[in-house]
Amino acid sequence: MEEINFLKNLFPKLKSDDKVVIKPGDDCAAIKWKDSKLQLIAVDQVVAEQHFLTSTDSKRVGRKLLARNLSDIAAMGGTPLYALCTSAADKSFDQNYHEEFMSGIIELADKHETQIIGGDVCGNPKGFVATLTIIGEVDHKKVITRDGSEPGDYLFATGRFGDSFLTEHHLDFTPRLKEGKWLADNAFAKAMLDVSDGILLDSMRLVKAGNNVSLQLFTEKILPRTENLPLKNILTDGEDYELLFSVSKENAEELKNEWPFSTPLTCIGRFYEKSEQVEIINEERVDLNKLFNTFSHF
Amino acid sequence: MEEINFLKNLFPKLKSDDKVVIKPGDDCAAIKWKDSKLQLIAVDQVVAEQHFLTSTDSKRVGRKLLARNLSDIAAMGGTPLYALCTSAADKSFDQNYHEEFMSGIIELADKHETQIIGGDVCGNPKGFVATLTIIGEVDHKKVITRDGSEPGDYLFATGRFGDSFLTEHHLDFTPRLKEGKWLADNAFAKAMLDVSDGILLDSMRLVKAGNNVSLQLFTEKILPRTENLPLKNILTDGEDYELLFSVSKENAEELKNEWPFSTPLTCIGRFYEKSEQVEIINEERVDLNKLFNTFSHF
Fold it and tell me: Which domains are assigned to chain A?
């Protein structure tokens, strides 16, 4: 099934009122909570032989599941609070597997003061599917959505890209919670998301959600995770879980000067008016244009 | 894996503070929301060949998934507000299958003014696992938990029991939302849950959570779903999704007189002091005692 077409058809069928402040399609949904706060809510999954190998230590799998969700909270500038998790597993995933899996979730949850408040465990004829629902909060005035990029803005990214599977970054990455919250608190990011499907596809999501923008990627500036990694891998490998965000021209220099983290911060592109028809990629044009065309229908 | 042992080991490892008003182990967790409201949160799953046959119309499967979660909200006396859903499916579950599945969710959600605010769709090497996270609300003063049954209380149930699979009740049942809310609004139910694992196991959960109580079930009073259904099926078939709740002796008559619904309401048992060692079941003692012993370790 094509997820993209499915969702494209689905979203118009969903009713929502103005208590739902951020609707389906962003990293998290947001509903009105108390005082000036929004409640952020998202759900994500891990599936055996899809997101991890069955042979992988299940503690790391549990950790990954929560970390993916924390990354979604980070992308809104939020703080995680609560989580619920489910598993549906066949009998080869025994009690020890589940206990290790949960210990991976709990260890990371404790680190981020996130409380596990519910869940469900059931059988499955074949395989292992686990989900985690994350609940967080953010000041309504500070929340960062995917839309809002304007011509003239710069595109910034945290961290390094590509080669996530071979390096096992996809299991051990650090969700960029403190960076996301700092960007929100200091109003640097006009639009933001976390890079789960590769920098090319996810930067296109910012373009689509932006205000009549096209994008030039400074591909040579993007930091690769490993040496000599081909550009195609840097752009499309996925599971980087870094933050990708737009910053106004006026704030870009100040951002670079004030960035208080050891996490790399790189300016990797610039938004232009859509009508200027700027090339999205300035190297390896043929292959990447083809990729771009594959992605461009959503 | 034994779910019960797993959860028994798991719960003590979970940290929680006093913002979590109802902790894991009830039908929903509850956190402080705004004003005098609690937010109710639960998650449930449906798995192909576990909770439904792959040949079943997927619209009815989607409906069932939401209805199960609505039943959990009903069991707290709450009102549903929002939902998020996930699916992990192999390619044999195509776009049409998913669209029908979602239409079953959306149709029931619209009926209960419940907004779908997020979700996730991904691949699965084999099978179909879907989850739904439900968010609802209830007045803090009115919420009904599993604990609170006292000696002298009567045990009441809505509806009929047993034979849920053959009659397809498990697909088409009506979650008892209006009954649950009415019981909460009128403070009739001291403790409540929804019957998902059979009336015997779920009434034992009320006993375990109660204040030093044992239970006599008036087994002959329990309404069977179908004629001539053996008691064992009535008590243990599961997936009834009826409400089971305790009512003080003083309120029992008034409850029966004021019950405004066409849904059957039956007094099916009475709580005694634990020390009185009342038989839990008064028919088919051997088989049921064996069953009871299987369940009694949690």
Answer: 3-139 (3.30.1330.10), 154-295 (3.90.650.10)
